[in-house]
Automatic annotation (TrEMBL):
Residues 3-149 form the Trehalase-like N-terminal domain. It catalyses: alpha,alpha-trehalose + H2O = alpha-D-glucose + beta-D-glucose. Its cofactor is phosphate. It comes from Streptomyces agglomeratus. This is Trehalase. SUPFAM superfamilies: Six-hairpin glycosidases. Signal peptide: none annotated. Keywords: Carbohydrate metabolism, Glycosidase, Hydrolase. Transmembrane segments: none annotated. Belongs to the glycosyl hydrolase 15 family. Residues 218-583 form the GH15-like domain. It is an enzyme of class 3 (hydrolase).
Length: 596
């Protein structure tokens, strides 16, 4: 049976991540990087597409599970008639080769355990050749090799059957058996053996040392810290890039076609990510993200993309994988993302705003950062009047999206403010001031509906867009402006579903050019929290925020969307944008400014 999206927990090593279900099955894992081909892809197909289950023989879902302390080490407990057992899953931060460690410990009585390992490389498409060597097993196909080790090996009976490796063993109270799965390029020699217990000790210490840096001590600390740990887990440590999610093609509508690959780094997240990290005390992570941003966007401003690969790669061709049936039949399954070629003018404002805030927050300046901002602004000056696809990456016709124009205003405004605050910077403040005023005037004239007292999704439209909730947050208009108040009320009224917020209407002919529907968008719901707070409706803001907290799964994770009708999470999981929104809203409600 397919598990719900929220039935999964995340483990990772800051270069890739795995999803572990309540039944003890790892159903998603890409090796060696977030964006590599999956060797466990049951999440988007079935068990024959690869998975690794570790659970008591004949058992179903676990009795309970939790992360150990402030870490990404997952403890899963089963209660059986013969006794109880705990499986501890984690991925040690790697020196070179990635490992998954699964430690089974008897808690009471005596429990017979069963391991079922189906390795399927290339997203479940390739069955590797498995052989025994030196008391271990190694699976090889093309460029990939995976080793399976058990410790102590003499306690475990293993056999192969129908391209699957099974293991059986028994643990009594206090006894432990560890399994280690290690990937390496098949042309290289066997990787060094990882001691599972030393790895556990070091991993726990690493995570708790990192968590101790969090400077937020408010009433929502548990939720904030778990979200920050999740953001850290979605960071590709070698470059500092942060992926939007570790998964691809988890649907925005069950059975629908809105299934996208989120294993890349979006520029739209940059300001909010920097704000959340700095406000919580994680300066090193913020600086690494800022530096990734500078490397990724370097070059001709006309070539600026909305997203990049983990190391700043620009070519992310979109492909469909027809052999995968999709999560609960949601097809197609896609890798890559064709939206990479879209024109989204808002990203120019978001990059300039990010670099402006990085300077304001005291991150060590980069000598070329200001020249880059002027170059981006020069391109935007000549192109902000053009229609674009907007931040929601619509696959319909280009339009004059209000949010894109507002972010063009942000770009000019931050340049003016920078020149006013730092006389050492070179630039023409009057030129950017004139651009700022022109953009502001046009948005207020063409993007505002005076009859309904609300900003609209695009010029001439009657549709609404949750992104207009950001207007007071970026400073385009003050929170007490009647047009802001009216926009917040209109979005809350017309885009609300079950008390949470959609990005835009998907009824009838939709602006995004796609069939079907989607759930409420969790980041937009957190934006409403911020907008309510800024417009003086603090009690409502706190009530909505606390309702949003109840949507987290049992280990504190959020997907991209939520369907109030079915009570299920939807979309790629866990989603950085949702957790960034949680952190920002929590900090703002606790008396600070909204992060970002």
């Amino acid at each position: 049976m397919t598990q719900r999206i929220e039935d999964y927990a995340l483990i990772g090593d800051l270069q890739t991540a795995a999803l572990v279900g309540k039944d003890g099955s790892i159903d998603w894992l890409c090796l060696p990087r977030f964006d590599s081909a999956a060797c466990f892809a049951a999440l988007l197909g079935d068990e024959e597409n690869g998975h690794w289950r570790m659970a008591p023989a004949g058992a179903g879902a676990c009795a309970s599970r939790s992360y150990r302390g402030d870490s990404l080490i997952l403890d899963t407990v089963w209660e059986t008639r013969s006794g109880s057992v705990r499986v501890t899953d984690f991925m040690p931060q790697r020196d070179k080769a990635p490992d998954i460690v699964r430690i089974v410990e008897g808690l009471s009585g005596e429990v017979t355990m069963r391991s079922t390992l189906r390795l399927r490389f290339d997203y479940g498409n390739i069955v590797p050749w498995m052989r025994r060597t030196g008391g271990h097993r190694v699976a090889v196909a093309g460029p990939d090799a995976v080793w399976l080790r058990a410790e102590p090996a003499d306690r475990v009976k293993s056999w192969g059957q129908q391209y699957t490796t099974y293991s059986s063993f028994t643990v009594a109270e206090g006894e432990k058996v560890a399994f280690i799965l290690t990937w390496h390029p098949s042309h290289e020699p066997e990787p060094p053996f990882t001691d599972p217990y030393e790895g556990l000790e070091h991993s726990l210490q690493d995570w708790e040392d990192w968590a101790a840096l969090c400077c937020y001590e408010g009433p929502y600390r548990e939720a904030v810290l778990r979200s920050l740990i999740t953001l850290k887990a979605l960071t590709y440590a070698p470059t500092g890039g942060i992926v939007a999610a570790p998964t691809t093609s988890l649907p925005e509508e069950i059975g629908g076609v809105r299934n996208w690959d989120y294993r890349y780094c979006w520029l739209r997240d940059s300001t909010l990510t920097l704000g959340a990290l700095v406000a919580a005390g994680y300066i090193a992570e913020a600086a690494a993200w800022r530096d990734w941003l500078l490397r990724a966007v370097a070059g001709d401003p006309a070539d600026l993309q909305i997203m990049y690969g983990l190391s700043g790669e620009r070519r992310l061709p979109e492909t469909e994988l027809p052999w995968l049936s999709g999560y609960e039949g949601s097809k197609p399954v896609r890798t890559g993302n064709a939206a990479v070629k879209q024109l989204q003018l808002d990203v120019y404002g978001e990059v300039i705003d990010s670099l402006h805030l990085a300077r304001a927050w005291g991150l060590r300046p980069k000598p070329h950062a200001w020249n880059l901002q002027l170059s981006l602004l020069g391109f935007l000056e000549s192109n902000w009047r053009e229609p674009d696809e907007g931040l929601w990456e619509v696959r319909g016709p280009r339009r004059h999206f209000v949010h894109s124009k507002v972010m063009a205003w942000v770009a000019a405004d931050r340049a003016v403010r920078a020149l006013e605050e730092d006389p050492a910077l070179h630039g023409d403040a009057d030129r950017w001031r004139a651009m700022r005023d022109e953009v502001h005037r046009e948005v207020c004239e063409r993007g505002y509906d005076p009859e309904r007292n609300t900003f609209t999704q695009y010029y001439g439209s009657r549709e609404l867009d949750a992104a207009t909730l950001l207007i007071p947050r970026v400073g385009f208009l003050p929170p007490d402006d009647p047009r802001v108040v009216g926009t917040v009320e209109a979005v809350q009224s017309e885009l609300s579903h079950g008390g949470f917020i959609r990005r835009y209407s998907t009824d009838g002919l939709t602006v995004d050019g796609l069939p079907g529907d989607e759930g409420t968008f969790l980041a937009c719901s957190f934006w409403l929290v911020d907008a309510l707070r800024m417009t003086g409706r603090v009690k409502e803001a706190r009530e909505l925020f606390e309702r949003l907290l109840t949507l987290r799964n049992d280990v504190g994770l959020l997907a991209e969307e939520y369907d109030p009708a079915s009570g299920r999470q939807l979309g790629n999981f866990p989603q950085a944008f949702s957790h960034i929104g949680l952190v920002g809203s929590a900090l703002a409600l606790d008396g600070g400014e909204t992060a970002g």
